[in-house]
Known about the structure:
heterotrimer; A: MetI-like fold; C: alpha/beta; D-Maltodextrin-Binding Protein, domain 2; 2 domains; 10 strands; about 45% helix; disordered N terminus
Amino acid sequence: xxxxxxxxxxxxxxxxxxxxxxxxxxxxxxxxxxxxxxxxxxxxxxxxxxxxxxxxxxxxxxxxxxxxxxxxxxxxxxxxxxxxxxxxxxxxxxxxxxxxxxxxxxxxxxxxxxxxxxxxxxxxxxxxxxxxxxxxxxxxxxxxxxxxxxxxxxxxxxxxxxxxxxxxxxxxxxxxxxxxxxxxxxxxxxxxxxxxxxxxxxxxxxxxxxxxxxxxxxxxxxxxxxxxxxxxxxxxxxxxxxxxxxxxxxxxxxxxxxxxxxxxxxxxxxxxxxxxxxxxxxxxxxxxxxxxxxxxxxxxxxxxxxxxxx
Amino acid sequence: xxxxxxxxxxxxxxxxxxxxxxxxxxxxxxxxxxxxxxxxxxxxxxxxxxxxxxxxxxxxxxxxxxxxxxxxxxxxxxxxxxxxxxxxxxxxxxxxxxxxxxxxxxxxxxxxxxxxxxxxxxxxxxxxxxxxxxxxxxxxxxxxxxxxxxxxxxxxxxxxxxxxxxxxxxxxxxxxxxxxxxxxxxxxxxxxxxxxxxxxxxxxxxxxxxxxxxxxxxxxxxxxxxxxxxxxxxxxxxxxxxxxxxxxxxxxxxxxxxxxxxxxxxxxxxxxxxxxxxxxxxx
Amino acid sequence: xxxxxxxxxxxxxxxxxxxxxxxxxxxxxxxxxxxxxxxxxxxxxxxxxxxxxxxxxxxxxxxxxxxxxxxxxxxxxxxxxxxxxxxxxxxxxxxxxxxxxxxxxxxxxxxxxxxxxxxxxxxxxxxxxxxxxxxxxxxxxxxxxxxxxxxxxxxxxxxxxxxxxxxxxxxxxxxxxxxxxxxxxxxxxxxxxxxxxxxxxxxxxxxxxxxxxxxxxxxxxxxxxxxxxxxxxxxxxxxxxxxxxxxxxxxxxxxxxxxxxxxxxxxxxxxxxxxxxxxxxxxxxxxxxxxxxxxxxxxxxxxxxxxxxxxxxxxxxxxxxxxxxxxxxxxxxxxxxxxxxxxxxxxxxxxxxxxxxxxxxxxxxxxxxxxxxxxxxxxxxxxxxxxxxxxxxxxxxxxxxxxxxxxxxxxxxxxxxxxxxxxxxxxxxxxxxxxxxxxxx
Lengths: 310, 283, 441
């Protein structure tokens, strides 16, 4: 329908030179990429290079410092807190991503149905994502507070516990708590992105499969999932990167405590770089995750390509 | 829709949906209650007799009043809206163009450029803000909304680009080719055929970009200094957390009033998810 | 006021939209940026947002306009959350632009020593006028050769406790030693009223407790040379073992997760009987006397007393939050900023601010101990000498950048937190020694 409406306007003007240039794929691609390149070049290229350079010097805040090679990396390699942070970051990213993807996909399938209050529900489900993270994390902190925890109240009145649970005071529970908050914050984003992906899949495909006698589960697996895969991969990719560099939640909820049990890359880098002023070491800590992330990203990107070719 | 018996609808739809709603919206409900709860009720331990976490018998508007009268909240709200809107538009335009180029046009280095855009996303903001502050100073953007409007796209564009690449790739090539045979230029085919089909993708990229700029914290903290220039997250935390005393009511009211309007606005957009798409594919 | 800024906003935005279209930042610069306040110097003063809201109001409404008039300068006073000061300072120093005068906590001046302007003259003149700066303030703001920042005030940390609850178990004066405090705490916890203390990662109350506690047992981070790590001693070990038992017997075990705010809430909601804190609990209870009531229905504020941390075998110590102002080297308004500092520290001006604090902040010079404010409210009286009793982290060495690193990494606090969570005392001390050795290389 939309195509027909536009068709009439196509034939009118004779193509000027500018238009012919735009007909060339390479030129058009160049023109389309210019704004992005300019912005990223202006604002990211320098800080990015600067960050790498910082990590191979011994500079502190206000002191430029000298080139020291990989000394900072060597230092953090032997740092037990850093190792804890590495372990925590991997655990945190892996667990939250699995849950966010699983729950997000499930929620997207639910939201893809027709029901009353659809638009309203879809928008309000996004609230955890909209509420400024700093502030929502304070609310969670209040809910996990050892003295006031409403969660303890609920569990107690459901008869599940007899004493209080020390949510943020116990190393394992503290980790679970921040994982829960991250999942809470991330599920809506997964759900809404995947929902958009689901909407691009023509319902006719599913109907056709249903006529052929495919069960709902088979239809999902053979029709929906392959078509959803490209979008899913991108969303997962970004979520992994974001979670890897997550800062706010841990910073507000535990500050990396108790006794460094919940430190992540970003919080530890911040504590060293900004708290202690050892900029170079902070840079080294946050860049130490770069090769790992890089690898993850490359693998995922290759996978995306392969999926798309197929 | 779920076929078959009524219980199946309950088990496969209503029940899980309800569980999701409780999980996702409970903290939100908690904020509402806290915003309207008088301070006297706030300081009650979880195991005390008169602890009533889900309701208050004496709701008060005191906190909301405080927020608007004692702080510059309405100004912050306006600042945040303006900054988030402009940076979203910039990021969307860049992201849609770049995504289209990278996914549907063939030119040298397309693959490595795509990866390159992605790589910029890998540097953590918690450290990036320090060298970035130098740039902001060099361009003399400090303490203006432009310091944020121009830096937010740096972490929004990569995502928008990649998300759009995903959506563009899912659109069948025949659609574009048909238009081209009918005489449309590449530019017009992109503008009038492909982009309308990708509306749901654009919307979700837009929602994503807007939300991230809406609640960004560290850049806003570092690049802005005048109270009347601040954004909601920075303004609220710097006014309402005083040393070791939290002003819980206004703090939560701030979070609430800073997010519900956005959710309501989104509810109009998400409606378009459906109509935008099904319409153009069938046409 | 708001409308003017909004209009300016719109003007900038429409110009900017055009500029963005033509793809240049130059456009924005050309249209959006008007050269502001070219003539009079503007001093941008960045400080924390005060625990005592009245003090910030006093500054904004009265003192700043007054100073502007008296000095012929413009002052831009910005207050932010204490936790957010450091990122601001870091970015400002690295980019060479930002606030002219910035508030620093404890030994931050050592961290930023290369980026500040010497303030020796001003500090010494205040010291001479007001009966001498306390050693504590001197050690944190001066490296012995020069003042890196101007001492402003000390936020004293004292134990706030519930008088009536201590009375009920027959304790009428606050325990003087750790042993008696532990006995008292045991009885209190048995009645469901434990002592509250944070051992989490938080800049105020956690190190404010663990450092003095360590010192009072005779433990120390390093020798006086500031290099040789001396934590692994039998005194330290003893303190860790005592703490482990003390924690189980007398403390609220939720404290491992607390930040600086939790103990305030726990105290005001009557779940703990005593906690180390600034005077903010008491001040909050005074600000809203009807909101905080005891189980007997009386106002909470009448039932709060303050006491210093108990003594250990090696003496009695305190580690308080010292605030000072750093004048930044990149500042283009150094003269004006110096004038402002001098004006603020003039006794008659400073007194107005001091009075608004009601004892929450203790000045850094000795003469203020004689001020009549301390007689007005006996509950606040213990804070009078907070600054006199203070000792800085890094003891027995200087409170330099290394000490600041150990402090910001929460190494001492984590030693106790680890032991309390079940790590054998020897291992916790060993871990601390290893960490400190990495800092003091």
